[in-house]
TrEMBL record:
Source domain of life: Bacteria
SUPFAM superfamilies: Clavaminate synthase-like
Protein name: DNA methylase
Transmembrane feature ranges: none
Keyword Methyltransferase: yes
């Protein structure tokens, strides 16, 4: 985190968690460069899960990367991490410096258009470090992102700008759900990267 960016970092949650919006941390040429590289080089796959005994295949594409071939089973489907590529290691370093945290894995999502989103959930999987920071970097189309408190149901909306960083930490996952709502207003793709720390 540099001296000049720290004053624009704000916790967007009113209580029960810390989610800092750092604003735009990548300039336009970095955004264009990494967006293209990731589109071409990432091992994108449609996500699969078994829900109520039925196989679900998402339109959104996903990929999981990390420092070793971590594997875990979620909704009866086993996933294995791909090994870091150069561009992800570069982005990881930028994000680690800006957030003052470290990460050992990254989940990537590719939303082809505003039709695709992600339903309310929290990211408290067993293999993730408890209350560990999750750093969300956005490339491509700007999208709205929403939080909903698990008890009070209070909602907080934010626009995730291209090249922006949002860092969820502390009790955010315990107390709040988040989602990427689908929207008719967006027709272009977005890539999101969430850097995380997993413990095996
Ligand atoms: O696409 C996003 O901004 C969020 C993705 C997300 O919540 C997740 O991968 O857990
Ligand atoms: Fe999430």
């Amino acid at each position: 985190m540099d001296l000049f960016s720290s004053d624009k970092i704000t916790n967007i949650l009113p209580f029960d968690g810390t989610t800092n919006y750092h604003g735009i941390i990548l300039d336009k040429s970095q955004c264009d460069f990494y967006y293209q590289q990731l589109l071409e080089k990432i091992n994108w796959k449609n996500d699969e899960a078994i829900i109520f005994g039925k196989k679900i295949i998402t339109k959104r594409k996903v990929a999981w990367y990390g420092a070793s071939k971590y594997s875990y089973t979620y909704s009866k489907v086993t996933k294995t991490a791909n090994l870091w590529i150069k561009e992800l290691l570069e982005l990881k370093e930028i994000v680690e410096k800006e957030s003052n945290e470290t990460y050992n894995s990254c989940l990537l999502n590719l939303y082809h258009s505003g039709d695709e989103g992600m339903a309310y959930h929290s990211d408290g999987e067993k293999m993730m470090k408890k209350n560990g920071a999750i750093a969300s970097l956005s490339l491509g189309a700007e999208r709205k992102f929403s939080f909903k408190h698990k008890e009070t149901k209070q909602r907080i909306d934010i626009v995730l700008e291209r090249g922006s960083l949002l860092v969820m930490k502390g009790e955010t996952q315990k107390n709040w759900l988040h989602r990427l709502p689908p929207t008719k207003k967006v027709n272009s793709p977005r890539i999101n990267l969430t850097f995380r720390t997993i413990e095996l």
